[in-house]
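Lab notes, practical 5.
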Amino acid sequence: MVLTLLPPPGAPRALAAAQLSNSVGDGAFYVCSALYFAQIVGLSAAQIGLGLTLAWAIGSVAGVPLGHLADQRGARGTAVVLALLTATAVASFLFIRSYAPFLIAAAAYATAQCGLAAARQALLAGLVDKDARTGVMARLQSTLNAGLALGAGLGGLALHAGTRAAFLGVFALDAVAFLICALVLARLPKLPPVTAAESASADGAAGAASGASAADGADRFAVLRDRPYALVSLLNAVLLLRLPLLSLALPLWIPARTDAPDWTVSALFVLNTAAVMLFQVRTARFVTDLASATRAVRTSGAVMLVSCAVFALSAAALPARAALAVLLVGAALQVAGEMRHSAGAWQISFDLAPADRIGQYQGFFGTGVPAARTAGPLLVTALLVTWGVPGWFVLGGIFLAAGCAMGPAVRRAEAAVARREFATVR
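Output from the prediction step:
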């Protein structure tokens, strides 16, 4: 089983090694960081929440120009530099004792992370054949979940100790993990940057497709003129509102609205992580082109609706074991929808992006993650914690609508790609 989850030898396996390294560090960091800044540094929950919201908002804006930088300067070198900057940002947390430095370090961390994600996608696109990208991404996602689970276990040891030294050890671990990530990425083959002539040609084609006139030379914001791709990215961001369900919504929902055992949240997390590790690759095998990708996303929206309905059912007056069983069924449906959405989104994001602007387009598509992290907590708490059972059905309806809308949006974007290619040939 382990061998089937590993990417093929060469660049894909090296990318997986880099992913494993930084995800172990991040898993420990995510578990411990909030408590460290609250209990050790003395920041309030409101300060931490606002700081992280601002940080990820800045990071999402920076994703496009940093992705463009990967296109223009070379994906490998840009990824290495951004991994080193992420390590530096994490290491700076070791010395933070007040709010202002926390804001600066958090913004630097989020910016470097968003840029690194775009650069690594561009690196993957340059080193992996087009037909194999979704399968490799599935294996990288499995690796990511394995690393996060391992890191969360290490972070749990630090939480059990509860000392400043233990928390600082976690930050040091995360910084070292990103240094290792940088070293692994530096050993990959070097990719040539996009030339100015190629960029100018792509700009002219994009302008013909969107009706906007392209500027001479390289345009680091060409993706912002590609309205069909922007719509696809927006729908993907809506579907990513599932991200706060496991980390925020259910931990608040379960003790307030159900009689399930206290350890239910941990069980749901383990179920999610294990399912992605074991079945993401298998799920992605059925996604091979834009048609199968849009079907996967549409199915994901429907499955997420059913999942939300099952979670709503857990609020009925059920015994503890029955409530636990209902929540486990809801979580199983949720992760099934998650895996289908992920596989479809990877295929769509790569296939609709110009070959010479992968980094820029991936940087824009990737803003859905920080956007969901920024807006998602506000939405899910308003719908689920405040409104209750009806909120689950509203949220499920949102998932279903976004999943069904993805097909027409992708067809519109695909037509824009065809017009770009026709304009380039002419």
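Observations recorded by the TA: Residues 196-425 form a domain with the Growth Hormone; Chain: A; fold (CATH 1.20.1250.20). Confidence is low (pLDDT under 50) at residues 196-218.
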